[in-house]
Amino acid sequence: MSDCLIIGGGIIGLLSARLLNEAGLDVQIIDKGEPGRESSWAGGGILSPLYPWRYPDPINQLAAWSQQRYPALLQSLLDETGIDPELEPSGMLFLDDGEDYQGWAAKWAVECQEIEGREELAGLEPNLAAEYTRGLLLPAVNHVRNPRLLKAMLASLRKRGVKIQANVAAKKLLIEQNRVVGVATPEGEIRADKVLVAAGSWSAGLLDEFCGPPPKIQPVKGQMLLYRAEPGVLKHILMHEGHYLIPRRDGRILVGSSMEYTGFDKSTTPQVRDELSTVATGLIPALAEYPIEKHWAGLRPGSPEGIPYIGACPDVDGLFVNAGHFRNGVVMGLAAAYLGADLMLNRDPIVNPLPYQVGTR
């Protein structure tokens, strides 16, 4: 019997396990599939909300806290495991006109640079299509190669003795006298003093009976493309009309993403492939010369306004939730895991926990 069982091996579950292990708890993780292969793997790894000024304060609060502390964590993981999560200080360049960002930038002390004129914009992105003549640059935005981050996290946890079980599905929470005592799986019961549900889009199904009202979490499919390009074709994260291009260190370029409410269907479609390809080559025409290497889809854990549920389930002692991060699981993940761990360990929380409280929305 462990001190804490974590259901879900994505970025939230893995970061939570690291923090609880550091606090001296005996932690184990179960995942219905391969840990680190769902939404956390499928996304782009941008360490910023896509249009941060469009989001409510609770999201920006977790994002800002995480942004300051990610570099130290990633360096620690590299030193510990030899796996480089490839933090890239590329900056983020927006081509959308008329965005009201000034109030957000002042509140969160974020540097923003307005780019005026084709020549100045081409100096930042020489391969950008000629029709674009204005932009907004957030120079401090980084991105991380999220599959490598997940690999490093898994390697670190295994070195620390955290038990991680793949292909073990949580079928039902075990509740005795209004207290969680573990979870039932096809392989049998797993007992624990505390249970943390961090199962992304699958979290609500486990909590429907026990949290009132249950978290409003639903899967939202996003399809992505990966171009096998060369270093220098794209220099910044590029944003336009809800789509993004992300340059990896080796020259590959991610293009995303769709927003589809199709339940738990993760299939890809030729229509979205063509749409994303048209977006990519419309912004960077040189991409037409490079092959599309991969096309995949992931399921984001959608929630009202994208605000995650973090904290104790009010109806069941020992049951905690950290889920519903929607499109911002990686950028909010570090702060979300810290906040969740603080609440599980009865420590002073890093931020006000009320906006994320379970059972209130």
Structure notes:
- The chain has nine helices and 16 strands.
- It has helices spanning 11-22, 39-42, 57-81, 102-108, 118-124, 146-159, 203-207, 270-283, 329-344, and strands spanning 2-7, 27-30, 92-94, 113-116, 134-138, 163-165, 172-176, 179-185, 188-197, 218-227, 237-240, 243-247, 253-256, 292-302, 309-312, 319-323.
- Helix 1 (11-22) packs parallel to helix 6, helix 3 (57-81) packs across helix 6 and helix 3 (57-81) packs across helix 9.
- The chain is globular.
- The model has no long low-confidence stretch (mean pLDDT 96).
Record keyword descriptors for this entry.
D-Amino Acid Oxidase, Chain A, domain 2; 8-stranded mixed sheet; 16 strands; 2 domains; alpha/beta; globular; 9 helices
